[in-house]
Design a protein that fits this description.
This protein has 293 residues and is of the alpha+beta class. It has 8 helices and 9 strands.
């Protein structure tokens, strides 16, 4: 019985020794820093990767990722300096540079992310509340974002954090505001189109009036020129007829009779009934004056 008891004690002591040996060592990976806490007080910071040792039972180890990390909080609405609402989404890049300060101020990385998100939100609301929307759409945007980043970096430095970048990932108007702006733009374009159509109708009336006036002037001028040409032609025809009459009055008289026949017969029916002694048939029966029947 005694041998069994001593054997059990030996096994228990061996297991306890192995457990103490394992709890006295820890492994540190690349990109990590370890803070050794002894009875609640930090005693050592180690950043070299490899196998490390600590006092068992009384020492605990806090691991922190010292690589560059990104914080992307949910979008939030911000009121600008011109009373417009803007839905802003940011992202922040940061890393842990002072492990002891970080542990004393924040303890955990979850608490650090929450505190950093609050710092970014506060600085964002303060800076954007001073500027109108037009500044965010101009070259001044870079200066505004740089000022926000500087302020967040200064407030995060005492907590052992280094903020390397703060940027506006997205900045949009809220849905209801966008719809209202769209409606105003649509109304403005409709009003502009109405004004352009009215102006076009006015120009069309002016062009039509000018065309009618030019048409009247052109027709009047053409009629005047036609009357002048017609008068000159009649005068020339009268002159030619006068010369012909002076040269051969009998032939002229016969020619005029033929013209009378042409006009009379053209206006009559297909059949004309005349008496043999009709004056109209005299020239047709006798021929030119002085000739034989």
């Amino acid at each position: 019985m005694m041998d069994k008891q001593w054997r059990g004690i030996g096994w228990a002591a061996g297991i306890a020794a192995i457990w103490l040996a394992l709890s006295a060592q820890y492994t540190l990976n690349e990109g990590q820093k370890a803070l050794v806490v002894r009875l609640g007080a930090p005693v050592d910071v180690d950043g070299e990767p490899g196998l490390k040792f600590k006092l068992p039972l009384i020492d605990s180890v806090q691991y922190y990722d010292t690589r560059l990390q990104m914080l992307a909080p949910p979008p939030e609405q911000v009121i600008l300096g011109d009373e417009k609402r803007l839905e802003v989404e940011t992202y922040t890049r940061y890393c842990i540079t002072d492990t002891l300060r970080f542990y004393q101020a924040l303890r955990t990385e979850e608490q650090a992310r929450a505190q950093l998100a609050q710092l970014v939100s506060t600085s964002l609301r303060r800076e954007l509340g001073k500027v109108p929307l037009s500044d965010l759409l101009s070259a001044r945007r870079a200066a505004i974002v740089a000022h926000i980043q500087q302020e967040v970096a200064e407030r995060a430095r005492p907590m052992g954090l280094q903020v390397t970048e703060v940027q506006l990932h997205r900045a949009d108007l809220p849905l209801e505001t966008s719809q209202a702006i769209y409606d105003r733009m649509k109304s403005a374009r409709q009003q502009e189109a109405k004004e352009l159509r009215a102006q076009g109708a006015e120009w069309a009336q002016q062009i039509q009036a000018k065309a009618d006036r030019d048409r009247t002037v052109i027709l009047s001028e053409a009629q005047r020129q036609s009357a002048i040409t017609h008068g000159e032609a009649d005068a020339e025809a009268g002159r030619i007829l006068a010369q012909a009459f002076s040269k051969d009055p009998k032939f002229y008289k016969f020619y005029r009779s033929l013209q009378t026949y042409r006009q009379s017969l053209a206006d009559s029916a297909p059949t004309v009934v005349l008496s043999p002694d009709s004056a109209l048939l005299r020239d047709l029966r006798n021929g030119p004056a002085g000739g034989k029947p």
